[in-house]
Fold this protein.
Amino acid sequence: MQKNILLIVLIVATQSIFTQNNANTPYSLFGLGVENKTATGGLTGLGNTGIAQSTPYEINIFNPASLGNLLSKSFLYEFGLNGTYSTLKTDNISETSNNGNISHIAIAFPLRKNLGMSIGLLPYTKTGYNIDIESPVEGTLDTFTTRITGSGGLNKFFIAAGFQPLKNLSIGIDFSFLFGSIEQESQVYSDSFVSILDQNYYNGVKLKTGFQYKLPKIKNIETTIGGTFELPTSLTGKQTRTSYKTTTTGSELTIEDEVENDLDNYELPTSFGLGITSKFNNTITTSLDFRKLMWNDTNQELNNERYTDESIYAFGVEFLPNKTKYSYWSNVKYRFGLNYNTGFLKISNQQIDSYFVSVGLGLPMKKNSQNNFNIAYSYGKEGTLNNGLIQENFHKITLNLNFVGNWFSQRRID
């Protein structure tokens, strides 16, 4: 039964990811859009920590080294949903928007003892904006309006593997393929109407490595440290442009018809991350992560704005009342997290930072089951009202279903 449910979910989820819902995120105007803050398992409720998190019952996309700890003959599969309600503010106006989407689909399984593999698909970036620009007509007192809209985003397909060469040490590698398109349409309203539609296609590969090491146990405290390193990469791009003009008489004139152009490569930076996770008496687990993305080294031009190095600080704590008891609620995991991101954009000499606070629950599908329904609520802010910029306040609900199967076990018939 679970296999049939999974098959249906995979088909629906894959279609949904490839046709991403439009968001309304003004800062997605820059670069490839806003990166989706996707986390697997219960890690959203833990502030998107996870570099040093390792459990044989959940998939961890933050560090491939965790795959070295999968149990023999197990099979993990997971998918997630999220929905966001946002309020966009400037000094003068405020408006609301909402959107939802599949956040990810992933599977993981052991290839042999101490060697595991994971495959998954998720939205990597999202783009959604609608901007009106009023400009003067040269030599007159008249003005004309240009409306710029954007949609789309990039997807990420990954294959990862983790290996445990020593008892307390795991290492891993993640190979990802990024692909997708971003559509931007400029509509100019003056004496005549001009529409310019650009479809920008990008693709490329990313490589990430990671490690996790379990320190010697001190009394009842188990501590794991972890690290990741991601190589820089260039995404190649192509553009297809279609434009036409509608005159005051209503006649339509084609200016360009699917004209193809090469785009400048988009550079993704070197990044590294460090994390530490401590478990106290198998009841309380704390996680602390730090990530650094070296955007300054990409030397990319961005009109009057610029990229700047990005730092991400995250903290999470999980409480499990008593796993040894047989009551359902003693097996529920309670989570809390904090996340602060300095951002990678500087506009009008103002850093576009963000933060969110999260709470979550890990609910077993049934008593003493390793199958979990993870739910998390996050509240956060991105941007600022300073220097005439836009601030986004958002509420986000994340739902993850995590199943643990035994698909590699053969049934015995007596």
In short: The domain at 2-405 is CATH 2.40.160.60 (Porin). The two ends are 23 Å apart (CA to CA).
